Amino acid sequence: MSNRTLIQDFLAKSEGCSIYTKYPDISDRSRWEGLSDSLKKKLVQAGEEAMNEPWTQLLISDFMEFKKSGNRVRFEDKYFPRRRKLNKLVLAECVENKGRFLGDILDGLYLILEETTWCLPPHTSYVRDGVQEKMPDVTRPIIDLFDAESGAEVAFAEYALRPVLNDISPFISTYVNERLKERIFTPYLGQHFWWMGNGKESMCNWTPWCTQNVLICALTRPEGFFTEEERRAFVEKAAKSCDYFLDEYGEDGGCDEGAQYYSHAALCLFGCLELMSGVLGNGKEGNSSFADVFKEKLIRNVANYIVKMYVGNGYYVNFADCSALVGGRTAREYLFGKATGDKVLSTFAALDFQKESEEERLVSSEINLFYHFIQAFAYDEMMSVTGEAGIPEDAFFESVGLMVARDGVYTLAAKAGDNADSHNHNDVGSFTIYKNGKPMLIDLGVGTYTQKTFSHRRYELWTMQSQFHNLPTFIDEGYLTGDESGAFEGKTEACGKQYLEELGRDAAADVYNPAFIMQHAGEQFGARDVNCILCMNSGETKGVAENSADKACSGKYISSLAMDIAGAYGDERIRSYKRIVSLNKGEGVCVEDTYDGDLNAVISLMTYEKPEIVPLENLNAEDALVDKTSEGKCIKIGDLGYAKVEGVVSATVKAYPITDERLSIAWKHEVYRVLLKMGPSNRLEMKFR
Fold this sequence. Notes:
689 residues; 23 strands; Heparinase II/III-like protein; Chondroitin_lyas; Glycosyltransferase
């Protein structure tokens, strides 16, 4: 780890620590009346609709269900609606200021305050990835993601409505502050939770997400609740955690959790920095502002990562637990872009925001009230933005081993790295292709989170396994024929058909089947000899590292990632598996695999559109750039195009229904897997057109 002190260094140049008042409470009528009439009408209407929704009944049996069955949804389906409803009511009351929503607001506020715990059932362990408690221990509060989120919600609701709540009774604010003291302030200052960081273990989105929400709680408390020194103590501890979080990033700003977690990682870092810059004064010389931290290259790169990952039509480059559809951009990205001086990011965020439905523009599903205020007070400005965000240049995130390359038709992403990413899937060497903004080769993402998702049995889940990524699986045919020597010379064609039928039939069992060799999880299971060359959209070629693929690319506009992925399998019989993934701009995608080993290789290609194995001679003359004179297999991928494959002896198509609710967000119908058995030459070339 690099043990950065970037945020702490900027903090050391500042003085004091005031209360955060950037967003108005209900008494600041000029700010609330300054919102556009259309937006005010929408916010009041959302509040009126929320009044007609019942408050959910949250039972301890719902909490206990997770330990019984691993089901966390039963609890969450009652937990989150309370918070969404309260947010809409608070905003409506702040806009209207007539007291019409206050009764319902108090009901919701007290329901949340009276919950036995604000933690979710999967998070009730006192050590990282420890065994969860069956019941919450009220004597030893845990600050998890949603304890902190709930604290921030009730804190910001009390801050926003404090003038009118005090007219009703001062005991309302007293109750909020006592809960915050019990569940947030005392444990935060007095205990060490793993997500705070210690410079030794890796951090993830939990670090800025929890930290941001603790700061919301602390920095919105009224004058006299904390001294200036006490507020600064929160900021100092938060700054240290932010630095531990940034230790996970290379200077390129690549996020190993993917685009979907950008909202909880990068944007929560923005939230931390925004809150700090809103309360810290200049240093003694008077010429140093904490907000200058946004000018730092690392912070700028963390911010604009999301632009580089965008494909089009709502799709993003995805890997690990990230979905291909991660949701629309919001005011947080827009303001992050403004803060870092990145007009591409701010324009991209505003234009994406304009395309969203009205419900999504109001971030109706969001439980963090602070985000709602950010959204409301940037809404009208974002609606007025015009222009084009433009196409990002090709990028290589060396810190995570990810290349993203584009031309006017294709978006290609290829991943090297290792299998120790946060929210890891075993996917070293996998790649995805979008053609005209539509998925050609896909990464599934992850299904609905359950207890198993974050347990030692995680890789029994099919979406986590390398065999369900665009990767080879190796076969020890000896185990399939009763000959455990591992030899496969002379085995019958029936044996080959057998394992093609069996592979993936029972994904959980495949993990323990010695006949199937897939990738393993862990930092030691990664790519080696990784080299990337980038062709910028201007046509200028940029070498990120010395590239073994360079000679093959001579004279072409090409972006290419070369690597040896044999080490990801941890089997000495797989000596090397070299893969070169290239975008030949104006032509298409080419993948070249060269294998040296003792086991048969079967390559998986995951598609969303239905693939069909078609004889080359049946293709019309105008059908893509397919050379009909050479040997190989041709795969027609829906109406998108073709994959011409040389170096395989068989091709099989399997369909997989999508029954999981979370997967169905991105994949509305069944997905498909093409299984390609590599030929005896152990060389394979795939051209996608």
